Every structure is written in C-alpha cells, then in structure tokens.
Amino acid sequence: MNLTSYPAEPFRIKSIEPVKMIPREERERVIREAGFNTFLIPSDDVYIDLLTDSGTNAMSDRQWAGMMMGDEAYAGSRNFRHLEETVQDIFGFKYVVPTHQGRGAENLLSQITIKPGQYVPGNMYFTTTRYHQERNGGIFIDIIRDEAHDASLNIPFKGDIDLTKLQKLIDEKGAENIAYVCLAVTVNLAGGQPVSMKNMKEVRKLTSRYGIKLFYDATRCVENAFFIKEQENGYSDISIKEIVREMFSYADGCTMSGKKDCLVNIGGFLCLNDDDLFAEAKELVVVYEGMPSYGGMAGRDMEAMAIGLKESLQYEYIEHRVKQVRYLGEKLREAGIPMIEPTGGHAVFLDAGRFCPHLTQDQFPAQSLAANLYVESGVRSMERGIVSAGRNKDTGEHHRPKLETVRLTIPRRVYTYRHMDLVAEAVQSLYQKKESIKGLRFVYEPKQLRFFTARFEEID
User: What span is annotated as the signal peptide, if there is one (predicted)?
Assistant: First the structure.
C-alpha cells in the first residue's frame, strides 16, 4: 500500500467523545438481547460505530458557531433564507422545500409525481425510496447497468443507468406510464458506486425526448463529484462546486438527505424547478413536516446545513473523505477479504455470499456476518442484502438481490486511519474462522422496512 496516496485528516481535533470496548462475553449478551440486529444495539456498547454515515458526522467549529445564530421563528426564519440561497447557488434549482430528513423529501416527491400503476425506473433501489414509491402506487424497475450486480468486477462508474433498459421500458410501457426516472448519485446498495457525467447527459437527453421528468437522489452527490473529477476525462481541472452544478443541470429536481454530504446530524430538502409541483409540495410539507420555511428543522439546524454544504465542496475535505474509505478497502483487499469492487465513496461493502459460502441466502448471511463482527470486535456495521430488500408486496416472497453485503459505513470527520486499521484487523480475524458463523431465522419480522427492527435467532 502506498501510504503517501492517503492524505492526513484536514482538520485539528478540538473536542472528543470517549468510547470503550466492553468484554466479549458482554458483547455476546448484547447481540442476543438485540435479536442479532445491529440496529438494536445500544450505542454505549459499540466501540467503533460503522452502522451508517447518516447523521453521524462531526460538525466544524463554524457550524457549531452557526448553531448559536438559530432564528427559531415559526415562519420566515432567516436561517431558511441562508439555506435556500446556498442550495440554489450550489444546485441551481428554482425552489427549495425543507424537510426533517431525506425520506421526508422522498415522501413529498412520491405523492406529487406518482399516479397508481406508474413505473419508477432507477439505478438500483434504496429502501426508503422504494417504500415511498410503492406506497404511492408506483412500481420500481431497476435499470442500473448489469455490471453493478457483480461484486468482484472492478470498473469505474458502476452506478450508470443502462440506457437500453430505459428505452425498452419506455417502448413497452409508454412514456405516459413512467412517473419519473430516479437517478441516485452515488448508488448506495451497489457499494457507493458513482454515476458518470456522460451518463447523466445521456439520460437527460433520452428523458427529454419523451417528456419524462428526471429526479436525482442527491444524498452523496459531493462524493460522486469527486469520482468524476478523479476518473472522468475533461474534469480533472474543474472544481468540485462546478462539477456539482453541472450534474444537477441535467435534472428536474432532487431529494437530499442533509445527514450525509451536508455534514449535519438532521435535515434534508426537496428541490424543484416546476411551478405546479412546487405549489403541491408546499401544501404537503405543512401536513407532514412543518411550515415551508422550516420543514421539520430548527433554525439552528438549517444554519449548520448551509455552512456544511459549503464546507463539503472543499477539495481537501472530500479528497480525505473518499480516500479514508479507500484506505480501509485497500487494507481488506490486501488480506484477501471478499468485497464489492471498486471501493465506493462512503463505505466498504463486504461480500457476505463469498465470506460465508456455507450459508444460503435464506439463512441471512449478511445479517449474521454483521452480528458476528460486533461480537468479534465491538465494531457495528449493517446488513445490506435480502433482509434489507424486503418482500414483494403482492406475492409476499422475499426480494432476492444479487448483492448480499455487510456495509462498513464511515462517518464524516469522525474516525482516524488507526480506527480503520482496527476495523480491518477485526474483519481479517473473523474471516479466519468464518465457518463458525451460523445462519439466522426471523423471530420477529415487521411488515415494512424490516431491517430496522426485525429480530433473529441463530440456527443450530
């Protein structure tokens, strides 16, 4: 490994949060009490928390200072004006509707754009996104390139939409039966894989030909911009901000979870260009979130988000962010650990199917691998496989994704390279005794988004 290719943290640490490692026998008790679901582990019992990068970011001194300038007026908060101006400047959309987090924006977009029976094609599903689409009568269709479903294939821009698949869907179902195209940048469940600018242009050209709206899931758009700058011809000398602005120039709007690339702990927004859709969204946001000038956020949260958005565009920040994830991936790759290739922008995804070849998908290998990694090391990760995929709402059968993974998700500005070393050592240690990992079965299965609260037991 060439250590010079991994930049040091571009910040100094001013405040710390102590963590501790509880003994192994306590971790065994904790995981049993949690029903082998890492979401149900108390955070005090976690040593290194890689459950998610959503809302787990460390904020800067400027963001904390901004929190003290919160205007908590019920209507007309000056912090919303600052957030609105910042989002309009960075993304280029006309309208901004604040929400409490990304799924609030997904709910609004689904309600105002989907008619029952319409199709919503996208570059691989995401759990809450598909839930809102289906809850409003939509039918999700995966149109990501086939290579995204091959964990071992190491090629750039595996998040691209397959234009042939999209054209075929239009030809078979009719453009009028497509609510909109959902383009995620980056693609979470594919391993944090980016989408090329070339593909965005081509998708825009195709959708424009048929009058189909194109909306982005912008949650990790700054990470996507870094990959474009690093790997796509013609962008190496273009700033991250300019790349982001061009990315969204091909869209009709976007949903955003501010808990990721906005570097805050709560918040989100919906962006739109269409006057009528904006009018509908403004009405619904009052029902589900709050006034159109706060949308479920406090003024201080909106101020921190506006500042965080600007900080996220700094090259020194995003280079370190992506390369810290890449560092962990390289450590695991050198040890022969099976995982999704190439390493994405926010997480390393262990390939549970190859990690635990003795378990069938019906024995939930990714769920068990995540539980066993916690017992082994105190590191909390999460399942991204058949449990997360859920069931077909009509047949009741499991959705069976080709990728059965465990996500090691790196919070922003929280951990150091030494923490990544410890995680790599833990995964390697568990891999040496992978045959001891047992399968699981449900003891409690919620009907919706089951991965959050389901409980399991080991199969003897």
Answer: none
- At residue 361's C-alpha, the angle toward residues 193 and 157, to 5°, is 10
Q: What is the pTM of this model?
A: 0.96
Kindly list the distances between the CA atom of residue 75 and the CA atoms of 11, 17, 71, 253, 264, in Å, as whole numbers in the listed order.
36, 35, 10, 24, 22
DSSP states along 128-176: HHHHHHHHTT-EEEE-B-GGGG-TT---S-TT-B-HHHHHHHHHHH-GG
Which of 49, 53, 217, 301 is catalytic? The answer is 217
Question: Along the 460 residues of the chain, how does pLDDT read in single tens digits?
Answer: 565 689 999 999 999 999 999 999 999 999 999 999 999 999 999 999 999 999 999 999 999 999 999 999 999 999 999 999 999 999 999 999 999 999 999 999 999 999 999 999 999 999 999 999 999 999 999 999 999 999 999 999 999 999 999 999 999 999 999 999 999 999 999 999 999 999 999 999 999 999 999 999 999 999 999 999 999 999 999 999 999 999 999 999 999 999 999 999 999 999 999 999 999 999 999 999 999 999 999 999 999 999 999 999 999 999 999 999 999 999 999 999 999 999 999 999 999 999 999 999 999 999 999 999 999 999 999 999 999 999 998 899 999 999 999 999 999 999 999 999 999 999 999 999 999 999 999 999 999 999 999 999 999 8
Q: Do domains 3-53+315-458 and 61-312 have the same CATH topology?
A: no
Whether residue 226 lies in the annotated active site: no
Catalytic residue among 32, 61, 74, 205: 74
**3-53+315-458: what fold?**
Aspartate Aminotransferase, domain 1 (3.90.1150)
Catalytic residue among 113, 127, 186, 409: 127
> Where do the structural domains in the chain lie, given as residue ranges?
3-53+315-458, 61-312
Residue 113 annotated as catalytic: no
Give the integer Cα–Cα distance in Å for 70 and 297. 11
Annotation says 95 is catalytic: no
Q: Which of 260, 333, 380, 450 is catalytic?
A: 260
74 is catalytic: yes
CATH of domain 61-312: 3.40.640.10
Q: Annotated catalytic, 364?
A: no
**Is 235 marked active-site?**
no
Q: Does the annotation count 217 as an active-site position?
A: yes
DSSP structure class, residue 391 = B
